[in-house]
Structures are given as structure tokens and as C-alpha cells.
Amino acid sequence: MNPSHILIWNVRGLNSVARRNVVRSLVVSTKIDIVCLQETKMVAISREIILSMLGSDFDNNYICLPSVGASGGILIAWRSRLGAIQASRMDNHSASVQFCSASGSPWWLTCVYGPQDNQEKL
User: Fold this and answer.
1) Residue among 67, 119, 75, 61 nearest 92 (CA)
2) Structural domain count of the chain
């Protein structure tokens, strides 16, 4: 099955329940199939957080790249109706998921977040 709605958002921290509630409201109201959140600022995202923020359709259908301190962090989550992913990949500043379309053609979704200090910006 192909996704009909994808949300890519720089949330600037999911430690706040209020921010997670805003994400939940947006996911519910727009029927988003895939959620990509950058700058989660969370070292770990538990199943309980996924369930409260996105709902049961996203249960066990997510990958996350942890933040480094209070910088970075990526979450990619997808509705269970999209099926199992073909592959996933985590790098220093990106997370990728390979889906298979309804026609059987695989495609990749990559979410990138690159925190940089002043030296790296040069």
C-alpha cells in the first residue's frame, strides 16, 4: 500500500507532553501515514511515547536515531497498514527506511539532521 500523507517536521524537542499532543492532533486530523520528526532532542523514544503521541497504528513501526545530548534526534514512524519495511539504516546524522510500494517497487525515505559546531560549518 502507498502512503497518502507524509509529515516531515522539525519539532525542536519531544520531551514536552504539550509538543507530543500537538503532533498527535496533527496526525489524527490529517490521517498522516508516515511521520518524520527531526530534532527530537531525546536519547530514547519508548513504545509508550509512540503510542501516546501517534496512536496504536504506529505501534512497533518506527525507528529512531537518538539525540546527542540536547542536539539532534530523528524519528521515522509509519502506520501498520503500510506493512513491514524492507530495510532500515542509521548513520550519524540520518535515518532511512525502505518501503515497498503497492506495485512492488521499493523506495527509500531518509530523514537527515546534522547538528554542527562552528568548526564543522566552515
Assistant:
1) 67
2) 1
The Cα 97–Cα 8 span in angstroms is 14
User: What domain range includes position 48?
Assistant: 6-121
pLDDT for 54-98, tens place per residue?
Answer: 999 999 999 999 988 778 899 999 998 887 789 999 998 899 999
- Distance, in Å, from the CA atom of 31 to the CA atom of 26, rounded to the nearest integer, reads 8
Q: What is the CATH number of the domain that holds 20?
A: 3.60.10.10
Q: Is residue 68 part of a domain?
A: yes
The Cα–Cα gap between 77 and 54 comes to: 9
Q: Which three cell numbers stand for residue 100?
A: 515497498
